[in-house]
Every structure is written in structure tokens, then in C-alpha cells.
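Reminder to self: C-alpha cells first, then the designed residues, so the page reads top to bottom the way the pipeline ran.
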């Protein structure tokens, strides 16, 4: 999802059989897309409005992306892939705190705070968008978090039988709920306290079923 910095476009991009695409135009369109998406939401977003905001022609968009869905998935994916890899601080607590800090910075970005909830809600109505975002964005982010937990297992900080799927839900859920759903202020030590709670939950032994 969008962060404060837009993804860096590849130089000299050329569609098959087409002209070289100007990076300055591409950057203007990408910035305009996220601004328009935050302003209107996915359902009401039009490529005409994106082109107007970017000061470009509609044809410039179609030379880069064939549809609104393709544009949304491509740009959301680029931001997700461009996000920094999970920090390797040498300890699980340090890694979790770094993960939460980076996620909080992204969720507090004005554009992201409006875009992410909208795309999640739209995905519930648009299976094609939902599947594309799950594959491109969710799986990318969860893959980075999975590696963080696997490193902790290798260091002996977590048991080998740790439920990684449940641990990933713990890592993402509380912070997203606080910053993107209920949007309540947090104390300066909130991320430290959240990191401690998450570590306790992830490392706790599973109770046996009856």
C-alpha cells in the first residue's frame, strides 16, 4: 500500500511494440492515482479523473495499464514490493518492534489511512480485486513477516512448533485495528507495550485440545 515515498519507476519502460514511456509522466500518473483513490475510493475512481489530476491524457494511462483494476493491482504491488525487508536486529523483540514501527508509519500516512480500508472493503464486493490484492500485497507482506519469525525459531527464541499462521495474524491485527479502524491516539510507549504483548502471545505454549 502507499507509503510516504512512491515506488521508483523503471527507466526507459517500453510497452511491447510501443514508444519509450517518459518516467516523469509515469510518476505524475502514479501520484495522481493514489491521490484520486484516497479522495473518491476505488468504486468511484475514474481513469479520466486520474489523467486530469496528473495533467496527462487518458491515452497515457492506457499505454501503461489496460484497466483500472490492472492499474490498482500494479501500483499497490509496486509499493508492497518496495517496502523495506523486515529488520534483522538479532532479537525477536527488536525485529517485532521494527516491524510494528514500519507498519505504523505506513498506516499513519494520510493517503494510506484512507486507501487501505477502502480497498479492503471493495475487495469484499469485487472478488477479482480481492484475489489480486491478496496475491500481490498480502502475500508479499506476510512472506517478509514469516521470514522474521523463522529467523527467531532458528535462533531458539521460538519453539519449532510455533503456529506461524496464527502468529502472523497477531502481528498484523491489533495495530491495524487501532490505527486504521478505530483510529484512536496512541501513547509514546504504545508500540513497545504492543511488542511485549505480541511476544507473550506468540511464544505462549498451545493448550491441548480435549
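Designed residues (210 positions):
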Amino acid at each position: 500500500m502507499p507509503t510516504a515515498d512512491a515506488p521508483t519507476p523503471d527507466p526507459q519502460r517500453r510497452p511491447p511494440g510501443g514508444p519509450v514511456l517518459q518516467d516523469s509522466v509515469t510518476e505524475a500518473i502514479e501520484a495522481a492515482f493514489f491521490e484520486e483513490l484516497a479522495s473518491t475510493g476505488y468504486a468511484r475512481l475514474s481513469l479520466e479523473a486520474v489523467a486530469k489530476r496528473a495533467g496527462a491524457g487518458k491515452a497515457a494511462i492506457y499505454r501503461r495499464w489496460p484497466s483500472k483494476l490492472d492499474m490498482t493491482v500494479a501500483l499497490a504491488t509496486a509499493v508492497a514490493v518496495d517496502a523495506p525487508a523486515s529488520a534483522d536486529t538479532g532479537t525477536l523483540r527488536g525485529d517485532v518492534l521494527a516491524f510494528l514501527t514500519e507498519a505504523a508509519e505506513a498506516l499513519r500516512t494520510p493517503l494510506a489511512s484512507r486507501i487501505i480500508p477502502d480497498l479492503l472493503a471493495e475487495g469484499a464486493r469485487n472478488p477479482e480485486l480481492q484475489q489480486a490484492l491478496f496475491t500481490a500485497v498480502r502475500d508479499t507482506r506476510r512472506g517478509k513477516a514469516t521470514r522474521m519469525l523463522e529467523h527467531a525459531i532458528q535462533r531458539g527464541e521460538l519453539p519449532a512448533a510455533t503456529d506461524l499462521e496464527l502468529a502472523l495474524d497477531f502481528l498484523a491485527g491489533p495495530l491495524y485495528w487501532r490505527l486504521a479502524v478505530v483510529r484512536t491516539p496512541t501513547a509514546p510507549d504504545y508500540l513497545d507495550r504492543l511488542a511485549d504483548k505480541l511476544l507473550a502471545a506468540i511464544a505462549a505454549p498451545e493448550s491441548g485440545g480435549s
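Confidence is low (pLDDT under 50) at residues 1-14.
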